[in-house]
Automatic annotation (TrEMBL):
InterPro entries: Pep_tRNA_hydro_II_dom_sf (IPR023476), PTH2 (IPR002833), PTRHD1 (IPR042237)
Catalytic function, reaction form: an N-acyl-L-alpha-aminoacyl-tRNA + H2O = an N-acyl-L-amino acid + a tRNA + H(+)
Hydrolase is among the record's keywords: yes
Keywords: Hydrolase
Residues in coiled coil: none
PANTHER family documented for this protein: PEPTIDYL-TRNA HYDROLASE PTRHD1-RELATED
Gene for this chain: PTRHD1
Enzyme class: hydrolase
Enzyme nomenclature, EC number: 3.1.1.29
Protein's name in the database: peptidyl-tRNA hydrolase
């Protein structure tokens, strides 16, 4: 007998990591920071639109799953971006222009178990 859930499609998740210092130390308005996360998430979907996981994620329009995490500062965000690149994880580092400030990043949709180990040190954004 198959294990419960065997053969069931894997839950896809899109991780978004936002610099929490933008709100808590640099006094950016919360709406401006949310906008940065929206830009990054949209850009990651656009860049990887043809990817099978992205297509399946978009087919589940009413049950999309995102996890928004906080990076303490620019160095932590840039370090995560480097680690993701080294691990071959597709993502978009959003750099706000014209200020040229890295504000957040978003992964393309992935099965949660594929990328969660890389995200463990980051907590939910507050």
């Amino acid at each position: 007998m198959a294990a419960p859930g065997a053969g069931a499609p894997t839950r896809l998740v899109q991780y978004v990591v936002v610099r929490s210092d933008l709100v808590h130390k640099l006094s950016w308005p919360l709406g401006a920071v949310i906008t940065q996360a929206c830009h990054a998430a949209t850009a990651a979907i656009h860049l990887h639109y043809g990817d099978p996981d992205t297509q399946r994620y978009l087919e589940e329009l009413d049950s999309m799953h995102k996890v928004v995490l906080g990076a303490p500062d620019e160095a932590a965000l840039s370090g995560l971006s480097d680690a993701l690149t080294q691990a071959g994880v597709s993502h978009k580092l959003w750099i706000e222009q014209p200020e040229n400030i890295p504000t957040c990043l978003a992964l393309k949709p992935y099965p949660k178990e594929t990328v969660q180990p890389l995200m463990k040190k980051f907590k939910l954004f507050k």
